[in-house]
Design brief:
Layout: H1 3-10, E1 16-22, E2 34-42, E3 45-54, E4 57-63, H2 70-74, E5 80-85, E6 89-94, E7 100-105, H3 128-133, H4 147-169, E8 182-187, H5 193-204, E9 209-215, H6 218-230, E10 237-241, E11 254-258, H7 264-274, E12 279-283, H8 289-293, H9 302-305, H10 308-329, E13 332-338, E14 349-355, H11 362-375, H12 380-385
Parallel strand pairs: 8-9, 8-11, 9-10, 11-12
Antiparallel strand pairs: 1-2, 1-5, 2-3, 3-4, 5-6, 6-7, 12-14, 13-14
Helix pairs in contact: 4-5
Bound molecules: S-adenosylmethionine.
Length: 387
């Protein structure tokens, strides 16, 4: 990566999360000991906040993006640079010989442009929309029983949005238009809080989208379809009562699933792989099936599996590791992350995958096969995909 590219990231108000310049190159004297840059939202305008430090005194100035001469500062004598963006993290260090050493990872981060760094709410719970979908009461307060769901949805969106933007910037996802909206499928949508919230939020962000919620329960379909009508969104939000495994929906850009029970998560992932979803975001629910297969523990692992609770947790970890590995082996970049604090749900893992089309790595394939062989298991996802 070149200095020009690094400068471009710093100057992109939609990508920059934070940049720090510090240290001093040999025989050079930058104007400040340290500069920290981050985007902030000031009266609905994104500015570049620059905090400079000298002799432990800090000064903060808010600039327009473009006003900060990045290349000049990159070359002004600082030795160490950290640049965090929504889709990459870059560290750069100048060696004693004045050579830049640059390391880049494609770690995904979220911007926090709040002025006071308090977490800004994505939604206004007082908006009628939240009353209609059943999250808020008639006074616009989130119902106590709905608080955790409300936060889960919000955190889900905080992860989905930068991911979508990164995929659009990387040309792996077409920018949505009215004629070609994003197509999203919510697997195991239940009461469709997430389904409606994703649709609503993307619309607010000018991202035309159509979303289909699948749930095996006919009551869900009837209830959710009535809400879609009430919100006047039935053209773009629809529901089907069917099992995910039997769904005839043939395409989606994005597949999501929030706590689709047990192996319904496997059905959702299998559907995504088979139907070419570009982004897969699934938060698994309870798992049972692998645990029941783990009857013959290979030694020395009985030390763990002899404890019922540890066996259960271990089987959970194995299940989600194998799900992530299968996605990887099918051309997805995949991470497993915590998307919300466990005080809001014990089921707080999120499998986040984006399709890159990368060829399966032989080492990863053999890790996968060895694991199945070692434990004498066959996860449901492998079964569905015949993999
Ligand atoms: C725990 S609820 C989660 C609902 C919703 N996603 C949420 O987070 O509020 C799981 C939902 O998945 C549905 N479900 C479970 N297995 C399914 C399957 N194989 N096909 C379709 N829906 C399924 C259930 O009917 C239930 O409504």
């Amino acid at each position: 990566m070149s200095l020009d590219k690094i400068a471009q990231i710093i100057e992109d108000k939609n990508r920059l999360v934070r940049a720090i310049f510090s240290g001093r190159r040999r025989n050079m004297q930058p104007e400040f000991e340290k500069i920290e840059l981050r985007p902030i939202n000031l009266r609905n305008e994104i500015k570049l906040q620059m905090t400079t430090t000298n002799d432990t005194k800090s000064k903060t100035t808010n600039l327009n993006f473009g006003e900060f001469n990045t290349l000049e500062f990159l070359n002004s004598g600082f030795a160490n640079f950290l640049v965090e963006a929504t889709d990459a993290t870059i560290t750069m260090r100048f060696t004693k010989k004045g050579e830049p050493q640059i390391f880049a990872t494609d770690k995904l981060l979220q911007q926090n442009t709040a002025h006071d760094r308090q977490k800004v709410r994505l939604f206004d719970a007082k908006n009628d929309f939240f009353k209609v979908i059943g999250i808020s009461d008639r006074n616009g307060f989130v119902k106590p029983s709905m608080n955790d769901k409300y936060l889960q949805i919000e955190e889900f969106l905080r992860i989905l949005m930068p991911l979508m933007r990164a995929e659009i910037s990387a040309d792996r996802l077409s920018p949505p238009t009215r004629i070609n909206p994003l197509r999203i499928v919510d697997h195991g949508c239940g009461n469709a809080y997430l389904t409606f919230a994703v649709h609503h939020f993307l619309n607010e962000e000018n991202m035309p989208n159509e979303i289909i919620g699948i749930d095996q329960r006919e009551e869900s379909r009837i209830r959710n379809s009535a809400i879609a009508t009430q919100l006047s969104v039935s053209q773009s939000v629809s529901f089907r009562a069917e099992k995910i495994a039997n769904s005839e929906i043939a395409r989606a850009d994005i597949a999501i699933a929030l706590h689709a029970c047990d192996t319904a998560t496997d059905d959702a992932i299998a559907w995504s792989i088979t139907n070419g979803a570009k982004i897969v975001l699934v938060s698994p629910c309870c798992h049972h099936e692998l645990q029941t297969q783990m009857t013959n523990t290979p030694e020395p692992w009985s030390m763990i599996t002899k404890h019922g609770i540890l066996k259960e947790r271990f089987a959970d970890i194995l299940t989600d590791s194998l799900r992530a590995q299968i996605l990887r082996l099918h051309g997805y970049r995949c991470e497993v992350i915590e998307f919300i604090g466990d005080e809001h749900t014990a089921r707080n893992l999120l499998i986040r995958a984006t399709f890159t089309g990368a060829k399966a790595d032989e080492i990863e394939l053999s890790r996968y096969r060895e694991t199945l062989k070692f434990w004498s298991i066959r996860p449901r996802l492998a079964e569905i995909l015949n993999f």
